[in-house]
Amino acid sequence: MNILNEIKQQYKSGDVSQKLIFINILVFILSAFFFDFISNQFQYPNWLALSSNYKEVMWFPWTLLTYGFLHSEPIHLIFNLIFLYYISTLFYTFFNTRQFLTVYFFGSFFAGLIFVAYGFFFNYNNLIVGASASIMAIFIAVATYAPYYSLRLPLIGYVKIWHLAVLYIFIDVAQLLSENTGGHIAHLSGSVVGFAFAMLMKKGINISEIFLFKKKKNTTFKKVYKNKPAKKYQSVRVADVNFIQRQIDEILDKISKSGYDSLTKEEKEFLFKENK
User: Fold this and answer.
1) Distance CA 84, CA 91 (A)
2) Where are its TM segments located (predicted)?
3) Residue 14 pLDDT level (bands cut at 50, 70, 90)
4) For FRET with 11, which of 73, 125, 231, 243 sits at 20 to 30 Å CA-CA?
């Protein structure tokens, strides 16, 4: 019982990426109902997994998202979630939660569309599952936005993140005609989303803002005067926000050029505070 309470606490206190990890684990446990002991593999129905047959997708359009929460085997799940855990931490160094969700789900959705289109044009018939497209979108977004960011890998040492990105893409391209063609198509499609998101961000275009809805205040009484002191206070607050944003931009630019380790202790604390 204590373990269950601890899991609940970890879920509540974790960020969005950690919540997604918990959700993926829970879905995998529940998907045991679809495990076929004769073939020793999961047999997901076409109303959960994504089919390359566009007619089936038209009947079950939600599979463009649900397939991203299913996994073919434990090692598939473990590798994806470990990768998601580390790369999401790095993603939050540069971006916020709304941007993370935008890249994650749009990466999965776009990869699903490309998978179905490939099935239509090349007469390819198969099902696809996995969160790999979403994770690749997150990974490539970071690698594009801060290509010279250094990662320390065991037994290898420091490596620029763009080197890893090129390696992953090369592997997917080289294995396009392998048994897992659909999976590699999804990886590359997710990468396109991550690349496009980062390039737009560099130009000051934040596509995640399309999901930002501002509530309109319903006022019964008509406003007949303006509070001048309040207006003055508001202008000061805007200046403060702009100053803080300039500090954040300078720190992110420093990370992009020299890596996270080049930051001073004060800069790291400031960035951590503003990302909360």
Assistant:
1) 10
2) 20-38, 75-95, 102-121, 127-149, 161-178
3) confident
4) 73
Task: Answer whether 121's CB lies under 8 Å from 191's CB.
Answer: no
Name residue, tokens 């018939």: 125
pLDDT digits (tens, 9 = 90+) for 62-112: 999 999 999 999 999 999 999 999 999 999 999 999 999 999 999 999 999
Among residues 200, 198, 201, 174, the alpha carbon closest in space to that of 188 is found at 174
Per-residue DSSP letter, 222: P
The answer to which of 40-44, 85-89, 215-219 has the lowest mean pLDDT is 215-219
Residue 59, amino acid: W
Residues near 113 by beta carbon (within 8 Å), at least 6 away in sequence: 64, 189
The number of helices, as runs of H, and strands, as runs of E, in the chain is 11, 6
User: What is the C-alpha to C-alpha distance for residues 183 and 80, in angstroms, rounded to an integer?
Assistant: 13
Which residue, among 41, 116, 25, 124, has the nearest Cα to 77 in the 3D structure? 25
Please, which pLDDT band fits residue 276 given cuts at 50, 70 and 90?
low
The phi-psi region of residue 77 (left if phi > 0; otherwise alpha if psi is between -120 and 50; otherwise beta) is alpha
Q: Which residue has the tokens 């970071």?
A: 142
Q: Do residues 14 and 22 lie in contact, with contact meaning Cβ atoms separated by under 8 Å?
A: yes
H or E element in which residue 42 lies: strand 41-42
| AA identity, residue 86 | Y
